[in-house]
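Q: What would this complex look like in 3D?
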Amino acid sequence: MKAVVNVFLKEGVLDPQGKAAHHALESLGFKGVNDVRIGKQIVIDLDATNKEEALKEVEKMSETLLANTVIEDYNIEIVE
Amino acid sequence: MKKAVVLRFPGTNCEFDTEYALKKLGLNVEIVWHKEETLPECDLVVVPGGFSYGDYLRAGSIARFAPIMKAVESYANEGGYVLGICNGFQILTEAGLLPGALKRNNNLHFISKMQHIKVINNDNRFLNKCEVGEVLKIPVAHADGNYYIDDEGLEELKKNNQILVRYCDEDGNPMVLNGSVEQIAGVCNKTKNVFGLMPHPERAIELILGSEDGVKMLEGFAS
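A: Here is my prediction, written as structure tokens for the whole assembly.
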């Protein structure tokens, strides 16, 4: 079973990398870009066979290590 | 003679500068490897600068779980003095020993230069040799020094005199260096025994290095 964790800076916390990419897109002539946020994606290969248990475990991993919840939010997708 | 322990993780690169500076101030210094599980008897623990674990994931996020950090956490919780410089500051915030977090500089640059900082509070063991409002010249060298704390946390810091230093120009006027909330360059915990800052006082202890203001910042621990 695989878990995909997406980590992003929280809403309201300035994302300087996203801002730089946003400016770059605009100067390349792409129109209608309202906002760009850059995060990271962490793909975890798990032994678990139960989706719920896997989710619980990856939640714990995210809270402990993968995200710094002072500045970041995360979401988890379990892929089979 | 007072004794300081300087931690070393894979990727730490300021342990010898820190050792040199503390020895010059009359402290006995021992460098301790991150795999150790206990701290030797000491009066101060310094988490020095560098790029522990290559700054992978987030600066300080992996070092914070190194075996020695459990010992540092209990040392700090028992009132022991802990100082984190640069990457050490990042490690201490990741460990939850200091409030807030450090994110990428707003201009995305690695900023490495001589910088002025202003002393905001000195009612603590770290800055008691400095005057409030005093402007010090101390080098900075970081990519992730953009201090973030939410409004509620910021109020707490102010209420408890936990803001140690702020970035400023040479006359002491506020200066935006990296995007830090209210130009904060260093903070301490509520009980004022854990300190963290991005500037490097250990690199400013001799005039030939451009400044000796770092002496003032470190000698509070020597007496």
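A: To summarize the key features: Chain B touches chain A at residues 57-58, 61-62, 65, 93-94, 100-101, 103-108, 146, 148-149, 179 (CB under 8 Å). The radius of gyration of chain B is 16 Å.
Q: Very helpful, thank you.
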